[in-house]
Write a structure and sequence with these properties.
single chain; 44% helix; 14 helices; alpha/beta; TIM Barrel; 8-stranded parallel β-barrel; 2 domains
Length: 328
């Protein structure tokens, strides 16, 4: 049994209310919304405002915002505060080009003064606790050299301390650089170095490549983090939090498929359109461990990812259980 905090990491087009509630049911100690564009919030864009919808059943829940302008980020934080989340998180880690390439998310790793200005502006603008999520740096040059203090201290150690000094209440670190995107292995040694810094007095959370009870236990014990955020490993597997906490190594296929069906129904309800809800769920079908390693599964997989109605999806899932579920 693992009695330590596990959080659902914020992911665009993934951590919507349908998925958050499932993860919460299976033991996620905190959930994060999809990241929210600050400029779009200020402009009152309907699709962006919709991302602020949270429920008491999700709590504690954090709404994450991103942007590159201190004024709009502060204004957006005040809008978010009205939705009454438990935390407001600042995204300093998104590596995708449409975010980082425009100077937001991980793009701010190349402009630390602006990052700190944004952080101070958001902290000063709201009464809720403000947290931040970031990466180890922009590229490998940052791993063992700090452009902040011009020293051989790892960049992330100095950055975390600087963000703390701006007033954040907690920091979460994805153990990769922006240049890595999601390739290679997460560097937990540097996450541990942040936690070991005697000047850090806020919680330090780690993120990256944790998908088993053994790895979670190792990260808590070896690196001393206060919580672990789990992201892509939850695709098609919202029960992962319970598996890690209880040391569950396998689940009956029919049980897993029933949860995936429930996710489809929740997605359809959230999106408000059957086909769009199914399309929104497909990344979970594609990545779910339930269907990995099944013999001669290619054509069934293609059919599952092409199905447009819930009746089609459920019929294919039922056939999968009938054909392969006896292996449980």
């Amino acid at each position: 049994m693992l009695d330590r905090p596990l959080y659902l990491a914020p992911m665009e087009d993934v951590t919507d209310p349908a998925f958050r509630l499932l993860c919460k049911r299976f033991g996620a100690d905190r959930v994060y919304t999809e990241f929210v564009n600050a400029d779009a919030l200020v402009r009152d864009v309907a699709s962006t405002m919709r991302k602020l919808q949270i429920s008491d059943a999700e709590r504690p829940v954090s709404i994450q915002i991103y942007g590159k302008d201190p004024v709009s980020m502060a204004d957006a934080a005040q809008i978010v505060e009205q939705a009454k989340p438990d935390f407001i998180d600042i995204n300093f880690g998104c590596p995708v080009k449409k975010v980082a390439g425009k100077g937001a998310g991980a793009g701010l790793l190349r402009d630390v003064p602006r990052m700190l200005e944004i952080t101070r502006a958001v902290v000063d603008a709201v009464h809720l606790p403000v947290t931040a999520k970031t990466r180890l740096g922009w590229n490998d040059d940052d791993l063992h050299h700090s452009s902040i203090t011009q020293s051989d201290t790892p960049f992330i150690v100095d950055l975390a301390e600087a963000l703390q000094d701006c007033g954040i209440r907690e920091i979460s670190i994805h153990g990769r650089t922006r240049a890595q995107m999601y390739s290679g292995l997460a560097n937990w040694d540097l996450i541990g170095a942040v936690k070991a810094n005697p000047r850090m007095h806020i919680p330090v959370n780690g993120n990256g490549d944790v998908a088993t009870p053994e790895r979670a236990k190792e990260c808590f014990e070896r690196y001393g983090v206060d919580a672990i955020l789990i992201g892509r490993a939850t695709f098609g597997c919202p029960w992962l939090f319970e598996d890690i906490k209880k040391g569950i190594s396998s689940r009956p296929m029919k049980w897993c498929v029933d949860i995936l069906k429930e996710h489809v129904l929740r997605s359809i309800e959230w999106v408000g359109d059957e086909r769009k809800g199914i399309v929104h769920s497909r990344r979970h079908f594609a990545a779910s461990p339930v269907f990995k390693g099944l013999f001669d599964f290619k054509q069934t997989r293609i059919a599952l990812l092409r199905a447009d109605t819930k009746d089609e999806v459920f019929a294919i899932m039922d056939r999968i259980v009938d054909q392969w579920g006896s292996n449980d």
